[in-house]
Amino acid sequence: MVATKKPAVKTATKKNTTTKPTAKKTTTIKPAAKKTTTAKPAAKKTTVAKTTTTKPAAKKVAPAKTIVEISVNGNKKIGTLMKEFNKQFPYIRLGIFYSYARQEVAKGGTIYNIDADKTLASVRRADSGGDISISGNKKIKTLEQEFDKVFGLYAQVCYTTKDGHRYYTSGSADEMTLSAFNKKCEADGCKKGEWK
Known about the structure:
Elements (H helix, E strand, L loop, with lengths): L1 H15 L3 H19 L1 H22 L8 E3 L5 H11 L4 E5 L3 H7 L12 H4 L8 E3 L5 H12 L2 E7 L5 E3 L9 H10 L9
Antiparallel strand pairs: 1-3, 2-4, 4-5
């Protein structure tokens, strides 16, 4: 009988040493995991705030003026073109002259703009025609050459200094893009809105 009692005691001892109470302690750790889960809504709030902040910034970038391109064809009036050009580049102007004005400039003579109410088709050379586009990344010399080639007209990008003196570009300024030269004129204090 003694042999029978010993296994019973051992079994009882084994039951007492089981890790069931430890398993209960592991269960108490789960609420801590729930606390970590409750931190997730804070992350969601941060994401919502970032999305809301990004959308208005995108709307502000959309109306950028440098994206606008001016289309020029024979049906466009010279005055309309000058206004569109000056609206896009407020510190510079576009002067359009008959081709013989180039020789007058070389002699130091005075030149005059073509009547603003006329269309480009009505004043261009008979053997010329076509379209050109004006954008901020176009070099000044390229634009002036295109007017000569496409319309047979003498074009000059002009500006008015803060003292009121009127000039047209030459030399290194002709190598600049329209946008870059417009910004330079703004920085130099040139007058704005002087398209006439």
